[in-house]
Amino acid sequence: MRRYKGLTIFAILVFAFLFIPLLIIAVTAFGSEPTISFPIEGFSLEWFGKALSSESFRKAFILSMEIAFLATILALIIGIPAAYALSRYSVRGRKFIKSFFLSPTIVPGIVVGYALFQFVVIRLKLPVFEGLLLGHFLVVLPYIIRVVGGSLEQFDFSIEEVAWSLGCNKFLAFFKVVLPNISSGIISAFLLAFINSFNNIPVSMFLSGPGITTLPASLMSYVEYNYDPTVSAVSVLLMLATVVIMFIVEKTLGISALAK
What we know:
13 helices
């Protein structure tokens, strides 16, 4: 019992370490002072109005949504077949291939950002939007392969073989048998990849250009020259949006389904 009590206290401390900063940020968003301060001296919604009326924040938010959505869709198109091949067939050097695909999650983000800057901007000389999209695609692809691959590891491929024996070709069997059975893993991979792309800072900072900046990079630039609670207000709005999305997912799919 004493051991379990110690684990409970440790878990409480970990959760406190994670959530207390979020609580402080949420409180400072409602302060009336022109600078971020805690505790606040007055109550005001001014900073939410400033955040919503800021054209630069609106454009950056829309760009972040576009980049995250497109990069995640492209990663799903490439990652699902790759995860299927790695799980279904005895590919030579499979462990090395898996390690290669997962390398962007191991290498520090600043290193990945600089490497992509050298490759995408200096060598390929891609336009800013296309460069950002390619960079985010490469960053989120490992999450797709990892999560979808985990679902495929638990999938009984004999079901697919039964479909083959009943006259269904391999292409149709993949879409009619395999994909529906790993749908929870695909949805989990989409959410994880989308959130990581939307919140990515290192790659976005290196690949952004004039007039094309993602929201996290825009917030970082704003904090360099301003220290008012507008950033806190934007953070609160993003947290609320995340809660709403998770609520919708829970009501339509169920969080328990994503954990399968």
